[in-house]
Amino acid sequence: MISGKSEPNEYHLLKSVKKWLNNNSVKEGKMKLRKATIDDAKDLFELRNDQNVYKNCLNPHPTMWEDHIKWLEKKLSDNDCLLLIAEQDGIFVGQIRLDREWVANISLVESFRNKGLSADIIKKAGQKVKGTLSPYIKEDNNISIKAFKKAGFMEYSPLF
Question: Which residue range is the domain that position 118 belongs to?
């Protein structure tokens, strides 16, 4: 697992981060992170079903629309989940999801990959939480390992 400097996990902070995001967005240059809504379902579905994304998921297979909507509705209403949308100039770039214990999951649209954006998104999301971000990364997912290391995470041991 990759881990950065940390304090003990503070689950109540997720609620305060969500409250903050209801009124704000994280911006730096042209990149923006905002809280996901049900209106993001189509972009998230297409991203999730990109072969290069799902091959690195816990369930390495495409998902059905109905299952995706159920999952998204559950995540949006889950107080232990913060699903953020990354946009650049109003264009969907990808997502980063922080679940209980700040488990991080990130994926980008193909046209935005390999541009160093993942590390920036990880840093911005990490600035809004206290505790350790613990990414889900497959052992052979060198691109994600590199992005988290570039974002300042020093140690790595594969989760699966």
Answer: 12-150
